[in-house]
Design a protein that fits this description.
It is built from 12 helices and 23 strands. The N terminus is likely disordered.
Length: about 525
């Protein structure tokens, strides 16, 4: 009894101190809105400061603008203390309690709250793309808007190479408010003209690159794109696989981060060239070997699973069987696997497809400028490729293989994976947290603040039992559970009727124990 009293007293003291004590934070804000002031720099910079910039050909930038008083006053009304702020860093120094941090995170213009300890609270900020239009549903299905776009991750500084047939329409249709096609290459007819023959590549491109606010916004509207034609429209020959490899090598040479390939091969005009389903081991077809080689350069290779589902072939088409590439199948608006989506696994038992996205009734641009629904893993693949670009943008130190793992771990069928849906439909919000939380060190807990459930990301595939214990501010246990046989990720619902507030979560796994402060909202 004495031990219990001491333990509760200690937790009560710890809880009270941590809840009431204010800590130092940098509050980073979303992009400044008073950009019209850039036309009158003399209002916030001296003549001498302007002259110094002029001498060195340095433009007055948004970082020179002052932080608006409305934002500063809103923050001051919440925190225990507000100190200096930096217009260059667009951040404010504050000292705040845990409850005040939660209140700050609800301000629409707050992007990140970074304590001195280094832990980051990230919250929804103003979305630079306000309305995704007709593409909203296919983006929301993978939680892209909430998980990445709302935080400002929209593909900036990422380069995506699109290997496809022709791109008719990409140079004539007004589908993006600024030009982001940085290079083209034609490995079929030669030269750089890719705006001929087929429009398939343009429809594929539009799912990522479209940026017409309120009409159609793709999954990576601010990325840069390289258009590479490798496919002959009117024939199917093995040479096209070498065109693909040449295109991948070109993408590597110009520094592409991601390849999207909505192409697949299994049968050719000459039946003697055909592959069999037994060849789906990732090491037999020349294009699959090329895809693996591309992945080994550090590029993220995203490929469609194929549209052979339900047919005589039924299985993946090459290079979807390749190891270390991200193979994408198709689902409809209800998350049900499309009948045409090619099935896995590979012949050596690897999980394919890796993930799925909207490929049935996916909205795309046509070469006449219309937007229509289309069917095919050709479109689920770029939807994921664009989303992966935004995900990678959020954690630039990650590797391509880290991005694949984050997408898999976050997906809907991670524990019930199968040959139809693979690991399932990714949740970009979870994937971002997994990728940024450095899961190699300890168990990561998400979201925080949490509504009614917590997601746990484990650092390895060890199935050691995990003991969870949630205590309130008075040291009382409000929920506990033993989790068995889980790897990589699991979900815990500690109770529907836990009151909002601050809690301490004790996690014990084998000989290791960690305590994490969590906030119930």
């Amino acid at each position: 009894m004495t031990y219990v009293r001491v333990a509760i007293a200690y937790l009560l003291f710890l809880s009270a101190v941590q809840a009431q004590e204010a800590h130092s934070y940098s509050v980073f804000l979303t992009a400044k809105e008073n950009v019209q002031q850039l036309d009158h720099p003399q209002e916030f910079l001296s003549e001498r400061a302007l002259l110094r910039r002029e001498k060195q050909n340095i433009a007055v930038k948004r970082s020179d603008l002052p932080i608006s008083l409305d934002r500063l006053e809103a923050i001051e009304d919440i925190v225990s203390y507000q100190g200096r702020h930096s217009k260059w860093l667009n951040s404010v120094y504050v000292e705040a309690t845990a409850e005040e941090v939660v209140a700050l995170s609800e301000l629409s213009f707050v992007k990140e709250i970074v304590p001195v300890s280094g832990h980051t609270y990230t919250t929804t900020s103003i979305n630079p793309v306000n309305d995704h239009g007709i593409a909203a549903d296919q983006a929301d299905q993978i939680t892209l808007v909430e998980g990445l776009h709302n935080l400002g991750y929209i593909g900036a500084d990422m380069v995506i190479a699109v290997l496809d047939a022709g791109f008719v329409g990409a140079n004539t249709v007004d589908f993006n408010d600024y030009s982001q096609i940085i290079a083209t290459r034609n490995f079929v007819e030669g030269g750089t003209n890719v705006y001929q023959g087929s429009s398939h590549g343009f429809s594929v491109l539009s799912t990522m690159a479209a940026d017409k606010n309120g009409v159609f916004v793709g999954t990576a509207p601010f990325a840069q794109y390289v258009l590479v034609k490798t496919e002959k429209e009117l024939s199917e020959t093995p040479e096209e696989m070498y065109n693909w490899i040449a295109g991948a090598e070109y993408a590597d040479s110009i520094g592409a981060d991601i390849i999207n390939s909505s192409l697949g091969y299994s049968e050719f005009d000459n039946p003697d060239d055909n592959y069999t389903v037994d060849d789906l081991d990732g090491r037999t077809s020349i294009i699959s070997l090329g895809a693996v080689a591309a992945a080994r350069t550090g590029m993220l290779v995203v490929t469609s699973a194929g549209n052979a589902g339900g047919g005589a072939w039924n299985k993946l088409t090459m290079p979807a069987d390749a190891d270390s590439v991200l193979t994408v199948g198709s689902v409809n608006q209800f998350g049900i696997v499309s009948g045409f989506s090619s099935r896995g696994y590979t012949t050596d038992g690897r999980i394919k497809p890796n993930v799925c996205a909207r490929g049935e009734g996916a909205y795309v641009y046509r070469p006449d400028g219309t937007i229509t629904p289309a069917n095919g893993t050709s479109f689920s693949s770029p939807i994921i490729a664009g989303a992966a670009a935004c995900l990678w943008e959020s954690s630039p130190s990650a590797t391509a293989q880290d991005v694949i793992k984050a997408l898999e771990v976050s997906s809907s069928h991670y524990y019930t994976k199968n040959e139809r849906i693979g690991y399932g439909i990714p949740n970009m919000k979870f994937a971002r947290f997994y990728l940024s939380s450095n899961p190699g060190n300890e168990i990561s807990v998400y979201p925080n603040p949490f509504p009614d459930h917590l997601i746990f990301f484990l650092p390895d595939d060890n199935t050691t039992d995990i003991s969870l214990e949630l205590r309130d501010m008075y040291g009382r246990i409000v929920a506990r559970e033993i989790i068995t046989g889980r790897r990589y990720q699991f979900r815990w619902v500690p109770g529907e009727y836990i009151a909002a507030g601050t809690y301490f979560l004790k996690i014990t796994r084998g000989s290791k124990t960690q305590v994490t402060q969590v906030f119930k909202i």
